[in-house]
Amino acid sequence: MTVEWKDMMLDKVAIGPVSARIYQGADYGKGPPIVLYLHGGAFLDSDKHVDRPVAMSLAKAGAIVVAADYSSLSGNVFPKALEVSFSVFTYLANKRAGLGDRKSLLFVAGEEAGGNVAAGVALKARDQMPDALDGQILISPLLDPFMGTSSIRKADAIGMRQRWTEGWSHYLSGGGCHPYAAPCLCSRISGVAPALIFTAEDDPLHDETIGYGARLKEAGVGVRQHVLPAGTGWPSIYGGKSEGAPDWQENVSHHFESFLRDVSVQPQLH
């Protein structure tokens, strides 16, 4: 499916106007799912509406993807980054911003740092807007501020250890480590929306991603978890060096399509 995009301003968001790039397939169907997409960048990059391959992959599966610039208003610092993102989520949940229709399912997605914020949005949605979120898509979410897993040792090889260290320091500089800021430390994760989770065998974030998926399953949350083989160029999704040319996009599109079918058939999966 050919994907088109346009830039727009979400000017009625409660926290203030938020710019967004909207991705959608040229022939998306009736009542398409809406995905709030939160970009990566180690809590250091602004959005700048550059091309987002993950957002493109989700749009190819038939979704309307709202790639919101949560960074400009928040400075990529907690809790502001979460507040901005949740404000956009609330706006989409109530109004859909003229996108899709009332039957459109609503998801939140993000990779790396954006995956952290997406997981936080899912937790906050459970607490403040039950049943408003139909699913969360976590793509190598950056969840462990202590960077204590075994797989994170691979971070040096792809040039990300120092960047993630600096990113965590920046993100938590607002003070404290709230469970919404580091969802892997959250003691109460039951009742959140179903999750579609991605990582890869050569991903330094593999262990924290798998660990969070396991905890969600233990808490009774519906989880679809996919580990791509090494050599797919996976670290490139968040700026890591990778020897292989990226060829993971079709995997993301395919598994998102399956996830959509599951959620549509079992809307109370969570």
Structure description:
- The protein has 270 residues and is α/β, with parallel strands linked by helices.
- Helices cover 32% and strands 18% of the residues.
- An eight-stranded mixed beta sheet has the order 1-2-4-3-5-6-7-8, sandwiched between helices.
- Helix 6 links the parallel strand 7 and strand 8 (223-228).
- The protein is globular, with a radius of gyration of 17 Å.
- The chain starts with a strand and ends in a 5-residue tail after the last helix.
- The mean pLDDT is 91.
User: What is the β-strand count?
Assistant: 8
Strand content: 15-25%
Q: What is Rg?
A: 17 Å
Assign the structural class, choosing from mainly alpha, mainly beta, alpha/beta, alpha+beta, or little secondary structure: alpha/beta
* N-to-C order of helices and strands: EEEHEHHEHEHEHEH
Short description:
The protein is of the alpha/beta class and 270 residues long.
Feature tags:
270 residues; alpha/beta; 8-stranded mixed β-sheet; 7 helices
Q: Helices, strands, pairings?
A:
Elements: E1 3-10, E2 18-25, E3 34-38, H1 53-60, E4 64-68, H2 70-74, H3 80-95, E5 106-111, H4 113-128, E6 135-139, H5 161-171, E7 195-200, H6 206-218, E8 223-228, H7 249-265
Parallel strand pairs: 3-4, 3-5, 5-6, 6-7, 7-8
Antiparallel strand pairs: 1-2, 2-4
Helix pairs in contact: 1-7, 3-4
